Amino acid sequence: MASVPLWFWGLLLSELVSLVCLVVLWRRPDSIWKKLLWTAALTLPVVGPLLFGGLYDPPSVQPLHERAPFSDEPRGGCGPNGLGTID
């Protein structure tokens, strides 16, 4: 039985990384055109995952100006550990 060349395993690993990148890409709320462009790029062995890892900029979950301000205050009532008290 002949052994499989090392380049084959590298190519196989590259394609598996591409598949993971595709799953991540299509689960994000990007435009369809951006998804199609990156899908085409990810079909290129070795180069596709490298481009995706280096250049893909996912959209933020929520714009910064719409985020709630950070607070160190506990999220409950006024009692210990943020728990309310019953009078």
Verbal overview:
With 87 residues, the protein is an all-alpha fold. The chain contains 3 helices and no strands. Helix 1 (6-27) packs antiparallel against helix 2 and helix 2 runs antiparallel to helix 3 (47-55).
Please supply descriptive tags for the structure shown above.
elongated; 87 residues; 3 helices; mainly alpha
Determine the mean pLDDT: 79
Distance between the termini: 81 Å
Quaternary structure of the protein: single chain
Strand content: under 5%
Give unreliable regions as ranges. Answer: none
Number of helices: 3
Structural shape: elongated
Share of residues in helices: 40-55%
What structural class do the secondary elements suggest?
mainly alpha
| Number of extended strands | 0
Order of helices and strands: HHH
Main sheet characteristics: none
C-alpha Rg (nearest Å): 23 Å
Walk me through the topology.
Blueprint: H1 6-27, H2 32-42, H3 47-55
How would you sum up this structure in a few lines?
The chain has 87 residues and is mainly alpha-helical.
